[in-house]
Amino acid sequence: MPTNPPLRHSSGNRAPKDAARAALRSRYRPCAWLTLRVHLDAAIAAPRAYLAAVWWRICGKRVRARARFASLLSASPHAYRLWLVGEPALDAGGDLNACVPIVALVDAGGQNAESALAPTLRSLAQEGITALVLGGPDGVTPARAATGIAWEQAPWLLPIAAGDVLAPGAGQAYRVAAARVGQGCCIYADDDLLDAAGRRVKPHFKPGWNAELFRHFDYLTGACVARARRADLERVEGPHWAAQVVAAALAAGEGQGPPIHLPHVLHHRRGRPQPRLPAAVPLASALPPVSVIVPTRNGLNLLRTCLEGLARTNYPDVEVIVVDNGSDDPATLTYLNGLDPARHRVLRAPGPFNFSTLNNRAAHLARGDLLCLLNNDIEVLAPDWLGIMATQALREEVGAVGARLLYPDGRIQHAGVVLGICGGAAHAHRLMQPDQEGYFYRHALPQFVSAVTAACLVVRRERFLAVGGLDEASFAVSFNDVDLCMRLNAKGWQSLYEPRATLVHHESVSRGFDRDPVGAARLAGELEAMKVRWNTGEGVDPFHHPQLNRFSERFVVGL
């Protein structure tokens, strides 16, 4: 019978396990402390909301509890520190010997302090990236730097500011991605900031390529590699030469595919470009006829406010189709019968409420080149809203256009739709004040989105009909607008959120909250249809991010 091995061997075999347990304990301790600190911050900042979230969790309403907790916990100044404890490891994959040349162009500005350049140059050297310093005491210009680059090797350029550093492995991640994309024009990554103490703060988990957003917010420059030409580098000048290099690369690469996003924090920065709030929309010179479709049932006060707002709207040719879904209130019927037939058409459509059916019937009868789907509880604020939305809808690459909608108290009700929130879809940035910064002012910037709400939506009639209109069978009440937008997107007609058209939406005043058993069952069926058709239960919205919380309409870090 074999004897037990000597004790010294036994302890030697335990050593790796003991080391692993020690490492786990050392990681768990700060994680547990930070978790407690984040919850304490949330409870102190919003005690009633925090207790409500705890109550929902006790009641077994896990999705509702997580949705409540998401925004509360993320507001803690320690939230990102907690996320960093479990930061996903960077795995570039691919060929570890990928030999794609990258040349860093370090913007020293007017600085001559070695302390600003030293960490950047050290970081680049560790990643095996050649560095050329522009500006600084020698005043090296981009044109002069171009003479020191081996252009015959088709290098990728990495503009970076003095003081910024790369994450370990960033160079290899860029090389592997560059080898895969071949003739692509730009590869960009996520970033965060370094505070005065060198701590990582304020991450920017970026969307997939969004050309419309980029017009107002340069989220590439300083956190990307770009394939620019020598002539491009020789032409740029001034303090913003780095942004000009990126713009030149995008222009040269047009038609070769969009910029590629690496969804990892590869750059730790001392500063980053800021969003530019948009100027007024130059309206199209010839706005086509538009048919505004307003479904309603009773609700005279809401309907009157909506139609009076349409009467104040500055647009050359508007047809208003009121789809009456069985109104029986005498005052409402009198009002409908008294509408001016030169401007209004009343389509009688009694029967069970089916939002998709009501709009589809009107769309087939409409004479306008554009359709505007409009809830009867919309309140017009400014007369130019329809012209703005129509101008955007006329763009060749655009499908559905959605407005920024506010609750009556001024908070945001709709700023685009994000897929995957709580397994379905939800309105982005809901309940924020319009003048808050939020997530890099995304609620205030025109941008492509996966979908917009049909509470106020403009689309070309021919495109609406080309995709079959709203789905009356699968989405009678909820998610029909999201499904429509996704089908338009699939045709190459991308949904667009336009905050310069802002209206008030008295949401759910006219329809209720689906709390009755029949409504709840219908909503559950429509949610399941969304998951099956558009993978909202598992997939990530391309304009959102895997590291943002899937239980919050706010763009907050997932914990």
From TrEMBL:
The protein's superkingdom reads: Bacteria
Q: Where is the Glycosyltransferase 2-like domain?
A: 291-410
One GO molecular function term?
Answer: transferase activity
SUPFAM superfamilies recorded for this chain? Answer: Nucleotide-diphospho-sugar transferases
Keywords of the record, alphabetical order, are: Transferase
Q: What protein name is recorded for this chain? A: Glycosyltransferase
- Name its species: Sphingomonas populi
* Phylogenetic lineage: Bacteria, Pseudomonadati, Pseudomonadota, Alphaproteobacteria, Sphingomonadales
